[in-house]
Amino acid sequence: MLSTLPTPPVNTPVSHAGQAVMTIGVAVGLVIIAVAAVRLGRKWSTAVPALLVLGTLFAGFYEPMENMGAHMWYYRPGQVTFFDAFDRSLPVWVFFSYAAFYGGFGLLAWWLAERGSPRSHIVRFVLGMWAFAIVTEIVGTQLNTYEYYGRAPFRVAGFPVWVSLSNAAICTTIGVAAARLRRHLVGRQQLALLCLGPAAITLGLVGTGFPTLVALNTVDPPAGLLYGAALVSMAMAGVMAWSATQLVPVSGLEPAAAGTERFGGRPEPIRTAGVAGTAGTAGVAGTAGVAGAAVKAGA
Asked: What residues contact residue 274 under an 8 Å CB cut-off, 6+ apart?
């Protein structure tokens, strides 16, 4: 019975040019994100930006499981592989794209919330991320480095767009939750934020995607089941994104109170001066064009 499920294109070679574009794009984006995280951390005397990026990088190990459920395949012949798991080969650029995409845009959402942006700006961020995630995935599939095989619903240029709202919800949740938790966790307690990225990514990709993942892995599913399940997944992702926006007051978060931010040594007050115009801010905002065009948004 399992033989009637769609099978991946195991013999299709990867485009060397496409793989090079993705690898270079992710590398450049990751450098920008790392610099921005350090600069913002120094500006506000907090380790939160670095913890967010590191946590999302660790979550890259999650990708093969999602690939298997979502019927996504990275072309193997000619691939520069980072590791193999669940009968899936993960390219180097894909693993690091987790930090570039989820970490980068999660950091941007954190900056927006931390600087006191009103809730309406966070809502705009969600909508912009939704559109941007669709565009980046379409670009990625057109570069012949991977594909969604089988009968995935709501395809646009080969990409099933039902996936993208969950990615927007993930980035928003990472940033807003980190800003809220920064006001409660002090010192070494903030190490718990390393788990925020993996938790939000799992919630977004599986917690909202499971209706569609189950439908995709049902033998000969009717079209109505596939499209109905995808609509349910998008609705659940929308609720996740909405919930994240509700964590931000209508007028924006108040500046974090003075407290102990460092993991050891003398307590230092949290500096809450605006960061607009700093090199760190420019790095975070600028990554949208660099990292986004080369990252695989996941699922």
From this structure: 115
Q: Which domain holds residue 134?
A: 9-254+278-294
Q: Domain count of the chain? A: 1
Phi, psi of 14 (to 5 degrees): -80, 145
| 271: nearest Cα among 110, 117, 40 | 40
Here the tokens at position 239 are: 């609720």
- Please tell me the pTM assigned to this model: 0.82
What does the block give as tokens for 49?
């930006």
Give me the amino acid identity at 246.
Q
pLDDT at 267: 40
Distances from the Cα of 178 to the Cα of 53, 84, 133, 242, angstroms: 11, 31, 21, 16
Specify if 41 maps to a domain.
yes
271 domain residue, yes or no? no
Where do we find the tokens 């798991």?
85
Rounded Cα gap, residues 162 and 156, in angstroms: 10
Chain position carrying tokens 């600087």: 115
**Residue 131 forms part of a structural domain:** yes
In the chain, where does DSSP find H-type helix? 16-44, 48-58, 63-70, 92-98, 104-114, 119-142, 164-182, 196-202, 210-216, 223-246, 279-290
Cα–Cα distance, 139 to 132 (Å, whole number): 11
What pLDDT digit, counting tens, does each position of 74-128 carry? 999 999 999 999 988 999 999 999 999 999 999 999 999 999 999 999 999 999 9
Residue 114: what are its φ and ψ, rounded to 5°?
Answer: -65, -35
